[in-house]
Design a protein that fits this description.
The protein has 17 helices and 13 strands. The protein is an alpha/beta fold. It starts with a strand and ends in a 15-residue tail after the last helix. About 50% of the residues are buried.
Length: about 450
């Protein structure tokens, strides 16, 4: 039986060749549903392990290595892949000590072709656009989606269109969309309004939407969980911790874990923790009241990738949390930037939003939710060069509303050996901030 599109709310079904993002009957979000009964026994650890390290398309992709769980019926020749995925899982003992757990891994999605996890979703979305015969694709974006869409559209021979808000867009992200040739439009509106405009535009002009409301995007993003589980030799961690913005990743993670468990590829479900910025926390607010009520907010956070006040995938994220007995936490911009600074200082590096994973894990340990003996995988969503202005501003202590607890200050020197010697002598015995002196500091 081929895969179908299935409405989460009313159960109406659509064929996968329908141009649909939400249900025509009730407006509910659509899922791509695969025939798990048909796949059971067909997909095995051995199948995916044999493909690991393949040089041949499409299995050289860290998404399409799991083709049967992403889009089982597709002709491999139709796939648009750069390839993506195959990102590293870093064992980080010093960061684990700071967070307060025995074992912490960081899954670095910034190592994708355009520097964020969005590439995993975009290979699925652009491939579907090609199958549908679309010539133009569009998205609203805080940055990463636009970079990915622009690259994959150009690579696949389609026209990319991106809508940005007219302020607080990280230049490292905007420059990618421009470089890859997309039509870039600045609009005096926030992300949530721009997403509404993209959907209106797509309906009126026959353009395919590639925001995470697109269910084929989320199918690609499931592969993050497939891959980290394979990297752990098919042993799941106790916790997967990730930032929450438009909630596409967390929704995809829940679906991936559910499918792996149903297919017998894992023997238990890890718990999911979604971490939001305090100024962009509608999911956290709903979680505090048992998801009885959801209210959009006006989002404000320095972590631009998650600056979203009305996340389109809210229902899917709630489902993921219920499947995994998950939790939602919030962290301040200060906590986000401090955690980012520590990740960066380990030579790994990440965009600001990624700091939520480490900051949130530490906060959940302090609250007794995550136990010190448990194994945690934190997801880093983007590359350190996605928002260099924030990184430099943090270390120069010029960002409004935050202060640098872990600064790496830029020195100025006269062009003499003695001047250099003095700086290096001082560096050998640096003064520590109070926060650096805490019992969990990273040295």
């Amino acid at each position: 039986m081929p895969s179908i599109l299935h409405c989460m709310d009313c159960g109406r079904q659509y064929p996968t060749n329908a141009v649909a993002y939400t249900c025509e009957t009730c407006g509910g979000l659509l899922d791509v549903q695969h025939d798990l009964d048909a796949l059971r026994g067909m997909v095995t650890h051995e199948l995916f392990d044999q493909r690991l390290g393949s040089l041949d398309a499409p299995y050289n992709s860290g998404v399409w290595r799991y083709k049967e769980l992403i889009y089982p019926d597709i002709d491999p020749a139709a796939i648009i892949s750069r390839p993506e995925g195959n990102t590293n899982l870093y064992h980080t003992p010093k960061l684990a000590a700071w967070a307060g757990v025995r074992t912490l891994y960081l899954k670095h999605e910034g190592e994708n072709p355009t520097g964020s996890f969005k590439d995993r979703g975009m290979t699925g979305g652009l491939t579907q656009a090609r199958l549908l015969g679309m010539e133009r694709v569009a998205c609203a974006s805080t940055g990463n989606t636009s970079a990915s869409l622009a690259a994959y559209a150009a690579f696949g021979g389609l026209r990319g269109i991106v809508l940005f808000q007219n302020k607080q867009i990280a230049l490292g992200k905007l420059s990618q969309a421009i470089a890859y040739g997309a039509t870039c439009i600045r609009i005096a509106a926030d992300f949530d309004r721009n997403l509404e405009l993209v959907r209106e535009m797509s309906s009126a002009l026959g353009i395919y939407v590639l925001n995470s409301v697109n269910p084929f995007r989320l199918e690609g993003q499931k592969s993050i969980v497939f891959e980290l589980t394979q990297q752990l030799r098919w042993q799941v961690p106790d916790w997967i911790v990730c930032p929450g913005g438009n909630l596409g990743n967390s929704s995809a993670f829940g679906k991936a874990l559910y499918e792996l468990h149903q297919l017998g590829l894992i023997d238990r479900l890890p718990r999911l923790a979604i971490i939001q910025a305090e100024g962009s926390n509608p999911l956290y607010r709903a979680y505090q009241h048992g998801f009885e009520h959801f209210a959009p907010i006006k989002a404000e956070t320095i972590a631009s990738a998650i600056k979203i006040g009305n996340p389109v995938n809210y229902p899917k994220a709630v489902r993921a949390l219920r499947w995994t007995d998950g939790v939602v936490e919030q962290v301040s911009d200060q906590e986000i930037l401090d955690a980012k600074a520590l990740i960066d200082a380990q030579g790994i590096g990440c965009e600001p939003a990624s700091g939520c994973s480490l900051a949130g894990a530490r906060k959940l340990v302090a609250a007794g939710v995550i136990k010190p003996h448990e194994t945690v995988v934190g997801v880093l969503t983007g590359h350190v060069l996605k928002d260099p202005d924030v990184t430099i501003g943090y270390h120069e202590n010029t960002l409004e509303g935050t202060s640098a607890a872990y600064p790496n200050q830029i020195h100025t020197a006269e062009p003499t050996l003695e001047a250099l010697r003095q700086i290096l002598l001082n560096e050998a015995a640096p003064s520590l901030t109070p926060k650096q002196q805490d019992e969990h500091r990273v040295s």
